[in-house]
Amino acid sequence: MSDPMDGIKADWATKDFYKELGVGTTASTEEIKKAYRKLARANHPDSNPGDDAKHEKFKSVAEAYDVIGDPERRKKYDEARTLFARGGYPGGAGFGAGGGAAGFSMDDLLRNQGGGRGGGFGDLFGDLFSGGGGFSQRRAPRATRGADLETSATIGFRDALDGVTVSLRVSSDAACPTCHGTGGKPGTSPHVCATCEGTGYVTASVGGAFSMNETCPACGGRQLVYDDPCPTCHGTGHGQSTRTIQAKIPAGVKDGQRIRLRGKGAPGENGGPAGDLYVTVKVSGHRVFGRKGEHLTVDVPVSFAELALGAEVRIPTLGGAPVTLKVPAGTPDGRTFRVRGKGAAKKDGSKGDLLATVEVQVPGSLSPEAREALEAYAELTADTPLRAGLFEE
Ligand SMILES: [Zn+2]
Ligand SMILES: [Zn+2]
Fold first, then answer.
1. I want to staple 181 with a disulfide (CB 3.0 to 4.6 A). Which of 38, 147, 237, 292 is the partner?
2. Which ligand places an atom closest to the C-alpha of 175?
3. Nearest ligand to the CA atom of 11
4. If you measure from the C-alpha of residue 150 to the centroid of ligand 1, how many angstroms do you get, rounded to a whole number?
5. From CA 22, how far away is CA 61, in angstroms rounded?
6. What is the pLDDT of residues 328-355, one digit of tens each?
7. Backbone Cα Rg of the chain
8. How far apart are CA 202 and CA 218, in angstroms?
9. What are the Cα distances from residue 247, in Å, to 131, 140, 147, 168, 244?
10. Of 386, 168, 353, 370, nearest to 264 (Cα)?
11. What is the DSSP-derived secondary structure letter of residue 125?
12. What's the CA dihedral at 270, 271, 273, 274 to 10 degrees?
């Protein structure tokens, strides 16, 4: 059996979404849609710039449609309202209506209604709170942008050059998965918070004639309280959600670069946009190649003879066929050759170059024949004044 409280929002008890859209509780999905469209058009912020009341109405209409415009959520909402109305308020949960200390139960409330009206639960609350001293004000849901999130990803050298899509696990603050943010133990029913009388805020005296509203400390602004707190979040309603998202890392990303992925952060609340996700990319090194911006680098071991005599040296390219480097006779050690178009991809789709640097390798040991030949060479060049310049005054 599924949990009857599954997916239910605590503030549904105080919100009449049917009334918000001006439709009956038996309205068809099509009728609800029509009503919503009409109201959304009439109150749209774009056509009512600066009109805060219409802006608020637009938001609450959107919230209402979000719930009862969706048959699945509407069913839950209807069930929740029935549940709240039937047994949600056992006797003893005191409402300080009108400042009196008298506690009364849901049954009392229903009896006081006289049974003459078929009004929904929202009506009941409306009456109660407006009669009890002006508490009819509803907390309009505020569209909040989701938080920006940070994460990191390690990608391969090749992937950094070509671009790659990686799966990232991203954690963000979210409603507790056990109680869906209500803070209550699943299967138990909430009471209207006695401290704030279900408004979600209390009026604190700041001194003199001044007072201000602050979030109710007893219910944390959720308007309802539970006898048994949720075992997962200990009544806070807060949790963590971990999502796996596919992030596209663009071609040419550099090691340590921070990439912003728009809209991949924490989801917004009440229709607000999602935040952004910042990914710090770590690029693994390569055994052969290095990076220098849009160019690739490679160190090419050569012999003294190859540089002195000139040579054709085969060098690798990344992801392509090897190329032949023509090393002219008399090339100094450490010279860098440029192989055009064999580097990293640039933003415009063209490619950088491959920078090949020759490095003389001195053999650690010589065969007798090689030694003999080298000694002969040394003898022939003994008169060449290699170090003469060191001693000039
Ligand atoms: Zn919880
Ligand atoms: Zn409260």
1. 237
2. 1
3. 2
4. 25
5. 10
6. 999 999 999 999 999 887 778 788 999 9
7. 37
8. 10
9. 54, 35, 17, 7, 9
10. 168
11. H
12. 60
Side chain identity, residue 188: T
Q: How far is the CA of 88 from the centre of ligand 2 (A)?
A: 16
Distance from the alpha carbon of residue 69 to the mean position of ligand 1, in angstroms: 27
Distance 221 CA to ligand 2 centre (A): 6
- Residue labelled with tokens 């003879």: 305
Average pLDDT taken over every residue of the chain: 80
Place of tokens 């569209």: 143
Contact 84, 121 (CB under 8 A): yes
pLDDT band at 10 (very low <50, low <70, confident <90, very high): low
Please choose, from the candidates 277, 281, 288, the residue with its C-alpha nearest in 3D space to the C-alpha of residue 250.
281
Distance CA 36, CA 26 (A): 15
Q: Give the environment of ion ligand 2: residues with CB less than 5 A.
A: 193, 195-196, 216, 218-219
- Which stretch of DSSP H or E encloses residue 174? strand 164-175
CA distances from 56 to 61, 125, 139, 377 (A): 9, 20, 10, 92
